Amino acid sequence: MARIGLVTVLFKSDEVLPGFFRSISQQTHREYILYLVDNSENITTDALISRCQEDFPVTLCRHIKTGGNTGVAAGNNTGIRAALEDECTHILLLNNDIEFSQEDMFTRLLETAEVKGESLIVNRIFYYGENKLWMAGGYMDEWRALGVHYGYNKPDRPVYHVPRYITYAPTCFMLVKKEVIEKIGMMDERYFAYYDDTDFVLRATRAGFRIWYDPSLVVLHKVSSSAGTNSPFYVYYSNRNKIYFIRKNFRGFRRWFALAYTLVSRVVFWLRFDPVRRKKLIEGLKEGFAMKP
């Protein structure tokens, strides 16, 4: 029987956990294990998780403490390894700052995976509390080294309701067959945070796996609830990791074009930033070039 390993990484997750647990507890498919990989440095407590479990009981929950912030990629890998050891047939990588109301979400994901033979499945994602899309599938722009979201920041429209194969999606809610992990390996932990999922998805598609976009399934996303979209942390790691991502995954003229595009576009960001973010931007770019691909 198909069993899903739900892998989520906790970090400053206190406010979002009740909604997250509520969404999972409503699922009609009960063959799953929830792996709470705790990077939260004692911010998220056992008591909070126990209270969520009491209010919104899930079938089976494993709280794995890492002892500190090991990063998103390493946290996901910890949960993936645990799921494979428990003989889960599928891994659902999901943020805990999401909610979903469809009670048959897991059932329909598995039906698509098993009946259609899909290895990677994603869905339509809205901003929480808004009738505005965050993602309706996406594509990999290798010239700019960007994973581009279809429908980003736009109202929902019929064009986004068409199921199809896509070439990119983030892993904030992605069902992955264990065969994908077995073939391409784990996430690259050197990213720490940001671009780790872009790298994972690119490796999967280059290995021959396709991403199926199912718009009939809907998730609400409380975007950047832990780190912020323009924090010094984000500025440093997003820029460091983009340079590393380009140098690791591209060759020849495409690599040099992507690097040139990135550096030129960062001039615009630098002009907009305050001194703290300017410093983090420069530090990130330098470290990205220093990292070994």
Regions with little confidence, pLDDT below 50 for 5+ residues: none
Q: Within the CATH hierarchy, at the fold level, what is the topology of the largest domain?
A: Spore Coat Polysaccharide Biosynthesis Protein SpsA, Chain A
Order of helices and strands: EHEHEHEEHEEEEEEHHEHHH
Number of domains: 2
The first-level CATH class of the largest domain is given as Alpha Beta
Indicate the radius of gyration in whole angstroms: 19 Å
> How many E-type strands?
12
Helical residue percent band: 25-40%
Shape designation: globular
Question: Strand fraction band?
Answer: 15-25%
Structural class: alpha/beta
The average pLDDT is 94
CATH architecture of the largest domain, by name, is Alpha-Beta Complex
Biggest sheet character: 10 strands, mixed
The termini sit apart by 39 Å
How many helices? The count is: 9
Give the oligomer, counting copies of the same chain as homo and different chains as hetero. single chain
Characterization of this structure:
The protein is α/β, with parallel strands linked by helices and 293 residues long. It folds into two domains: 4-221, Spore Coat Polysaccharide Biosynthesis Protein SpsA, Chain A (Alpha-Beta Complex); 232-290, no CATH class. The chain is built from nine helices and twelve strands. The protein has helices at 17-25, 46-55, 72-85, 105-115, 178-184, 196-206, 232-249, 252-272, 275-290; strands at residues 4-10, 32-38, 61-65, 90-94, 98-99, 120-127, 133-135, 138-141, 146-149, 164-166, 173-177, 211-221. Strands 1, 2, 3, 4, 5, 6, 7, 10, 11 and 12 form a ten-stranded mixed beta sheet that branches. A two-stranded antiparallel ribbon has the order 8-9. α1 (17-25) packs parallel to α2 (46-55) and α7 packs parallel to α9 (275-290). The termini are far apart. The model has no long low-confidence stretch (mean pLDDT 94).
